[in-house]
Amino acid sequence: MQINAESKALLKQVMARLDGFLANPWTAEMEPYQIIPNVYYVGNKYVGCYLFQTQKGLVLIDCAMQETAYLLLESIRKAGFDPKQVRTLFITHGHIDHCGAARLLQEYTGCEIYFPQGDLFFLTDRRDLILREERVPEFQVTGTFSYDMAMDFGNFRFRPVHTPGHTPGCTSFLIEADTEQETLLLGLHGGLGLNGLSLAELEANGLPLSLQQEYLGSLERIIKEPVDIVLPSHASHYPGDYFAIAAQNDGSGKALRVPGMWQTLIGDRIRQAKELIKRDAQAAG
């Protein structure tokens, strides 16, 4: 199978942006902010990283690249916490921009690391799938996720959901967050990127062609969840200016409780996935 022009252009765009931040990590810097009480955005302009102050210690979802780790640590400090107190790191999938700083963080904090079962082979015999794998030191995985079983951290319950496609093990999170007034449902999709999902790219990478349909199917299931607040893994995936909306938030979450935001985010990717599947079908004749 030949990789079509659209897929080549998308991959080139994704890798160019990644390489730009790897070469000039300071350009990704942004101020952390409180989303709701006990939940903070501590990522950068490129990758979303989220800090949770739970009753069982600090939990971090994704850690971005090793090159931007100093930005992550500084954002945690600015949010009012000692980064050495991070106890648990959840990694959504095995690409460099989500797990690149895992070893550094593990050495610095001694944190436990939970990783998707379906992406474990990225860390062993297929390190090339990490993307720029030479920049990702090996790290120790504490455990993998048990899907659709909530991990209870007291004031937060993290429910990992298997959403394959972007990678075989890509994991999303539906998070029940207790506030003084109510319990909110936070939604974080672990990997909405369409790069690598054409049939030709899947074949070239030695990955199951079924991932394309699995991606669409998982989106069609998770879109039904009654998410109150969206935590994007990449703000650029939202079809609008997510950071502009977040800038209006006062830390209570009110500005981010946009009706239908989850459905807008996921629905846009369903549309793009269907277009990709249609292009592949037309190419196959």
Give an overview in words.
With 285 residues, this protein is α/β, with parallel strands linked by helices. The protein has a single domain (5-284), classed as Ribonuclease Z/Hydroxyacylglutathione hydrolase-like (Metallo-beta-lactamase, Chain A). The protein has eight helices and twelve strands. The protein has helices at 5-23, 69-78, 96-99, 102-109, 199-204, 211-222, 242-247, 261-284, and strands at 33-36, 39-41, 50-54, 57-61, 86-90, 112-115, 143-144, 151-152, 156-162, 171-178, 183-188, 229-230. The strands form two sheets. The protein has a seven-stranded mixed beta sheet with strand order 1-2-3-4-5-6-7, covered by helices on one side. Strands 8-9-10-11-12 form a five-stranded mixed beta sheet, with no helix packed on it. Strand 9 and strand 10 (171-178) form a beta hairpin. The longest helix is centred in the last third of the chain and has 24 residues, at 261-284.
